[in-house]
Specification:
Strand 1, helix 1 (25-36) and strand 2 (45-48) form a beta-alpha-beta unit. It is elongated and about 85 Å long. It has helices spanning 25-36, 69-76, 78-87, 98-121, 138-159, 163-192, 198-218, 223-233, 256-281, 300-308, 311-315, 372-380; strands at 15-18, 45-48, 51-53, 94-96, 294-297, 321-323, 332-334, 337-343, 350-351, 358-359. The protein contains twelve helices and ten strands.
């Protein structure tokens, strides 16, 4: 009540302290308030454990095992310290040390790379480039589905002060589903498709949706980093990610049927990726684009599903053949993915100098050394 931004009734939204205050400040405040105003002086209490060293010992100057926050900030930056808190289960005692902070710094670097990729891919993006979800390829609509799922989890997590749950969900999404899957697949479209190609425009539309949500979702945990990211795209004295609300995420982005389809596609992709890794390890190929594997699928419906999408793009190969013939004995398998076998075959043709895919038609177009897709794009821009 004594501050302009205080609550009219003088009740605190949150009391925040360590477990030693259960019979201290929390308790004494409650006793006093119950006697004077007839209720607790707070609407909520958040209690956390104590900070211990990396081995779980109590910090002591005499033992020389203290970790000074200012030293961590000077060495790593303030956002690394915040990220350590966000990654930790504060309901128990928290450990901190050099190796733990190095792990946090690695997580931070991976998140920063995710944001950097989006900033680069969204250069000069405008409303004219936007594509409606109904016109998008399935892969883009799957990403929108995941955003709709995460939106619910993030809002619930922050409301419950479950920072670890929010961070874990977002970090898993950024590293496993974006960087190692979606970004990896769509690099070809972003780099090599024509500027007006629907697939490229759809990918950039999804990246814009990702950017706005990830920047605002991470902002409470990484305020300095997300401010830098936001200002890199939206510069200006009045611009700030901290003036943005979490974007509204349409409920119709949720598509459980589509999610189930792509869960099956990704399981098959795992087998193909593992099979190609064997060839790479044995020095048979240097990159997945040198391959044109034959994927044997026992399930006819699953085979039809794989043929409905550009499965070669999904696997980042120059070509792929989906077959329902019996799986040959020499085929590569993964025990945990039954009914799938992969036989390696080299891609036929020459390497396109622009997209690096190996195509039979390379060299048969007006622009020497490129495939048909790249020749069309080059002609469209007047090269």
């Amino acid at each position: 009540r004594d501050r302009p931004d205080g609550s009219p009734d003088g009740i605190a939204d949150l009391y925040l302290e360590g477990t030693d205050q259960h019979r201290g400040w929390f308790h004494s405040s409650m006793l006093q308030a119950c006697g004077t105003i007839g209720r607790a002086p707070y609407r909520g209490v958040l209690t956390h454990g104590f900070t211990l060293d990396a081995k779980g010992n109590k910090m002591s100057k005499s033992l020389g095992n203290t970790v000074a926050p200012e030293k961590v900030v000077k060495q790593y930056g303030a956002d690394i310290l915040r990220l350590w808190v966000a990654q930790s289960d504060y309901t128990a005692d928290l450990r901190i040390g050099d190796e733990i902070l190095k792990g946090v710094a690695d997580s931070y670097r991976r998140l920063r790379n995710t944001m950097r990729f989006m900033l680069g891919a969204l250069s000069a993006f405008s409303e004219a480039d936007r594509v409606e979800p109904a016109e998008m390829p399935e892969l883009e609509r799957w990403v929108l589905h995941r955003l709709a799922e995460l939106d619910h989890k993030v809002r619930e997590g922050y409301a419950a002060f479950d920072f670890q749950g929010v961070f874990s969900a977002l970090f898993q999404f950024c590293t496993v589903e974006l960087s190692a899957f979606y970004f990896d697949i769509r690099k070809d479209a972003l780099y090599c498709d024509g500027a007006q190609d629907v697939r490229r425009r759809a990918a950039r539309t999804v990246l814009d949706a990702l950017f706005h949500r990830l920047a605002t979702w991470f902002a409470p945990m990484l305020p300095f980093t997300m401010e830098d990211v936001w200002l890199a795209r939206f510069p200006g004295e009045e611009s700030s990610v901290h003036l943005q609300d979490f974007p509204h995420t349409p409920g119709d982005w949720l598509d459980e049927e589509l999610a189930a389809r792509w869960a099956r596609i990704r399981r098959v992709r795992r087998v193909v990726t593992a099979a190609l890794e064997v060839q790479r390890r044995d020095k048979v190929i240097g990159a997945s684009l040198e391959a044109a594997p034959v994927v044997h699928v026992e399930d006819e419906a699953l085979a039809d599903l794989l043929r409905e999408v550009d499965f070669a793009d999904v696997c980042i190969t120059s070509d792929v053949t989906v077959s329902t013939d019996p799986v040959p004995p020499e085929a590569f398998r993964l025990p945990e993915v039954a009914g799938i076998g992969v036989v390696f075959e080299p891609a036929e043709g020459a390497k396109c100098l622009r997209c690096w895919k190996i195509r039979p038609d390379v060299g048969a177009h007006a622009h020497p050394g490129v495939c048909g897709r790249c020749d069309t794009v080059l002609s469209a821009v007047g090269v």
